[in-house]
């Protein structure tokens, strides 16, 4: 192939190559010829060579050696060379290339050229690859061209100004006055560029947005002219007058009307007119309607207009084009939370989309169907969703199943919630300290209205017991002021205690809440004591035990009542697999007894004392050569109960003693239960052969006994 072949012949040769290797050979030979001709000072085929190089670049082959040729051709006085040079600069150069700085002066000169097409080339190049430095240098020239009389130049300058604003946001203020004046133009190209520029300015600067809200009437008039105008061959697209400009104006109106009632009111009539007069049988009409719907839903529009917008989306759901159905469901998904009833009218059409063959449409229909489930339609919706679950694709099965379970739980659970729901909600309330006052007021009112929902009643009782003082103050700013007295609160808790609908667990919550209020109120402590004492003879063992313990707190430990019943600290949620009172952390390890070595035999249990019906036995368990765990067990074989039972121990100084907490201080009659206490003895120096210990027993306030134990098997052996 000759080096001087024209572009068409080079393209034909490349396409006729049978292998990639042959194609590379053709391109390498042609690039070598182009490079050689670039070195010639005066070559009439410069534009043809650069055009061929640009085609090579489009195929993905390196063409960087043509960058400087682009710079030289841009500076050429010939329009044919300048045009190809600017095209090459837009394709081969970017703002990161040093060569791009070399064309700044040429662009500035061409922006002042007498030929509008040369000006157009410079504007297009600056809008395509202008760096921040170039934009700062040339911004005054662009502002000058925005005020020119030539419409062809003004529309190009407006789009170039958009690029400058994106690169250097501070320059937006420079173009704002000229952009507003462009809205008075009649040329659609200039109007389109002006709307795009104003949109960019409003999105990037809130102050500019407020300033351009004054242009809403002008934009409304322009849009009305497009909607009601007759047939115009120059702008008509499938029966719609300039749909591209209409879409741009609607987007700008959406930005200007967002969170502003005055601007929204000014465009409500226009949006209703566009929504009713636009033909929805063509794609361009659907595009305009879709932008209209988005604008209606995003501004502070009238309720009737929002219903009209939802109905348009409902018509989109019936369209044969899957793309239109998809965007309709996407838009409905966004508004289902605020316009739930309006979306519900199209529930049948949405459910039918579950049968669509397209996976994306199915997924969006599933999400929207689950969002539409309510207490009134759950039966019919569950039938459709279960039918879909039986035949849905594997990738949607997990989402469908979990959505069905969640809908059933959130819609039909009522009081039948899982056991962990109550403590989980209590934990959330405890952690949100700033909402304690608001929460206790709301739950108190819910308790007065309905006590049939047991889980809610339990949470309400817990909150009243914990934060009853906040309820009585009546200082909650989030709720309406209401005067709640101590008697009102106690009446509500008594209602729960006496109701036949209350479960034993709920009564336990209410009784504990009543007891906790004894430290949060001042004038009704005697009434609380009376309520608690009544349940000391309750048939329910758990409730009876609580009441007896609370009565004992009043009688014997009244000085400790305020500390025992103080406000609960922040509740740490247990890790999965741990029961109440257990933790996955290290602190539990500190209070656990040392582990027995594998294979170490337990020493036999031996009686230590037997007197006045009280039997004390001990069992020793060897942990190591110097550590022994002794378990003391006391039982009562008499016919009367023993209270205030304590065990004490003393050992020589050579032995370290650590006593664990006892299992209780009450010994029931006839050996019904035992009191156990664990003692850890450590003989670090292995002193032997005997270790004396003195165990003291006291019970029933005035009775006591002392037992001496001369040796502990296993511990004394360690001393040998």
Helix content: 55-70%
Instruction: Return residue spans where pLDDT drops below 50 for at least 5 consecutive residues.
Output: 575-603, 716-720
The chain-level mean pLDDT equals 82
Strand order in space, largest sheet? 3-4-5-8-7
Rg from C-alpha positions? Answer: 43 Å
| Coarse shape | elongated
Strand content: 5-15%
Number of strands: 10
Count of individual helical segments? 32
Span between N and C termini? 107 Å
Largest sheet: 5 strands, antiparallel
Helix-strand category: alpha+beta
Give keywords.
32 helices, 720 residues, three-stranded antiparallel beta sheet, 10 strands, Immunoglobulin-like, alpha+beta, 56% helix, disordered C terminus, elongated, five-stranded antiparallel beta sheet
Describe this structure in words.
Residues 684-695 have a biased composition (Polar residues). This protein has 720 residues and is α+β, with helices and mostly antiparallel strands. Among the domains are: 421-564; 604-719, Gamma-adaptin ear (GAE) domain (Immunoglobulin-like). Helix content is 56%, strand content 8%. Strands 3-4-5-8-7 form a 5-stranded antiparallel beta sheet, with no helix packed on it. A 3-stranded antiparallel beta sheet has the order 6-9-10, with no helix packed on it. Strands 1-2 form a two-stranded antiparallel ribbon. β4 (614-622) and β5 (627-636) form a beta hairpin. α8 runs parallel beside α10 and α13 runs parallel beside α15. Residues 575-603 and 716-720 have low confidence and may be disordered.
Helix and strand arrangement:
Elements lengths: L6 H9 L4 H19 L7 H13 L8 H8 L4 H14 L11 H8 L4 H14 L2 H15 L4 H17 L4 H10 L6 H17 L1 H7 L3 H13 L7 E2 L2 E2 L1 H15 L3 H17 L5 H16 L4 H14 L5 H14 L4 H5 L2 H6 L6 H13 L6 H14 L2 H19 L8 H11 L4 H14 L4 H20 L12 H13 L5 H13 L8 H10 L6 H15 L5 H4 L22 H5 L14 E6 L2 E9 L4 E10 L9 E5 L5 E4 L15 E8 L10 E7 L3 E7 L11
Helix pairs in contact: 1-2, 2-3, 3-5, 4-5, 5-7, 6-7, 7-9, 8-9, 8-10, 9-11, 10-11, 11-12, 11-14, 13-14, 13-15, 14-16, 15-16, 15-17, 16-17, 16-18, 17-18, 18-21, 21-23, 22-23, 24-26, 25-26, 26-27, 26-28, 27-28, 28-30, 29-30
């Amino acid at each position: 192939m000759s080096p001087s072949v024209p572009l068409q012949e080079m393209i034909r040769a490349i396409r006729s190559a049978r292998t990639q290797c042959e194609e590379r050979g053709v391109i390498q030979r042609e690039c070598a010829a182009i490079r050689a001709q670039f070195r010639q000072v005066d070559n009439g085929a410069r534009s043809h060579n650069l055009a061929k190089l640009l085609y090579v670049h489009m195929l993905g082959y390196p063409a960087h050696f043509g960058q400087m040729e682009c710079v030289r051709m841009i500076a050429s006085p010939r329009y044919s060379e300048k045009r190809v040079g600017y095209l090459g600069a837009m394709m081969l150069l970017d703002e990161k290339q040093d060569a791009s700085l070399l064309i700044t002066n040429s662009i500035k000169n061409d922006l002042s050229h007498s030929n509008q097409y040369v000006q157009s080339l410079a504007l297009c190049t600056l809008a395509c690859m202008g760096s921040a430095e170039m934009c700062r240098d040339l911004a005054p020239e662009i502002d000058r061209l925005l005020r020119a009389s030539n419409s062809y130049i003004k529309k190009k300058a407006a789009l170039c100004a958009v690029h400058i604003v994106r690169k250097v946001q501070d320059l937006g203020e420079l173009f704002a006055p000229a952009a507003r004046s462009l809205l008075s133009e009649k040329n659609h190209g200039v109007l389109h560029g002006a709307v795009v520029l104003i949109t960019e300015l409003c999105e990037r600067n809130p102050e500019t947005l407020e300033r351009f809200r004054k242009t809403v009437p002008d934009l409304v008039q322009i849009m009305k002219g497009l909607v009601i105008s007759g047939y115009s061959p120059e702008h008509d697209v499938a029966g719609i007058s300039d749909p591209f400009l209409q879409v741009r104006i609607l987007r700008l109106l959406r930005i200007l009307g967002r969170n502003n009632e005055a601007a929204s009111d000014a465009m409500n009539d226009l949006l209703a007119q566009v929504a009713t007069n636009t033909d929805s049988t063509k794609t361009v009409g659907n595009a305009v309607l879709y932008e209209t719907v988005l604008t209606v839903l995003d501004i502070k529009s009238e309720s009737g207009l929002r219903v009209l917008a939802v109905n348009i989306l409902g018509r989109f759901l019936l369209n044969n084009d899957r793309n239109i159905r998809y965007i309709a469901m996407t838009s409905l998904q966004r508004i289902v939370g605020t316009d739930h009833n309006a979306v519900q009218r199209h529930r049948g059409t949405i459910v039918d989309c579950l049968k669509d063959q397209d996976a994306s449409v199915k997924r969006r229909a599933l999400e929207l169907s689950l969002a539409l489930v309510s207490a009134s339609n759950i039966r019919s919706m569950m039938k459709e969703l279960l039918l879909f679950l039986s035949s849905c694709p594997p990738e949607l099965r997990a989402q469908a199943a979990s959505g069905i379970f969640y809908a059933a739980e959130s819609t039909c659970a009522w009081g039948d919630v899982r056991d962990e729901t109550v403590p989980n909600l209590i934990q959330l309330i405890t952690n949100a300290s700033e909402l304690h006052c608001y929460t206790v007021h709301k739950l108190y009112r819910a308790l007065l209205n309905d006590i049939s929902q047991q889980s809610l009643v339990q949470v309400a009782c817990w909150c009243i017991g914990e934060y009853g003082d906040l309820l009585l103050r009546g200082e909650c700013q989030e709720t309406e002021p209401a005067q709640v007295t101590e008697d009102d609160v106690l009446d509500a808790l008594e209602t729960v205690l006496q109701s036949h609908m209350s479960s034993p667990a709920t009564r336990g919550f209410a009784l504990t809440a009543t007891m906790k209020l004894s430290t949060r109120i001042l004038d009704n402590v005697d009434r609380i004591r009376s309520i608690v004492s009544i349940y000391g003879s309750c048939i329910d063992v758990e409730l009876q035990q609580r009441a007896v313990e609370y009565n004992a707190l009043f009688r014997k430990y009244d000085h400790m009542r305020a500390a025992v019943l103080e406000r609960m600290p922040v509740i740490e949620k247990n890790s999965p697999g741990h029961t109440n009172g257990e933790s996955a952390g290290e602190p539990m390890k500190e209070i656990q007894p040392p582990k027995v070595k594998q294979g170490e035999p337990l020493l036999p249990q031996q009686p230590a004392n037997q007197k006045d019906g009280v039997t004390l036995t001990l069992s020793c368990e060897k942990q190591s050569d110097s550590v022994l765990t002794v378990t003391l067990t006391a039982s009562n074989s008499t016919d009367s109960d023993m209270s205030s039972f304590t065990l004490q121990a003393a050992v020589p100084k050579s032995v370290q003693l650590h006593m664990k907490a006892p299992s209780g201080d009450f010994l029931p009659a006839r050996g019904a239960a035992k009191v156990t206490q664990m003692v850890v003895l450590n003989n670090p120096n292995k002193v032997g052969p005997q270790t004396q210990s003195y165990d003291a027993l006291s019970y029933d306030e005035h009775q006591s006994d002392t037992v001496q134990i001369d040796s502990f098997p296993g511990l004394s052996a360690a001393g040998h």
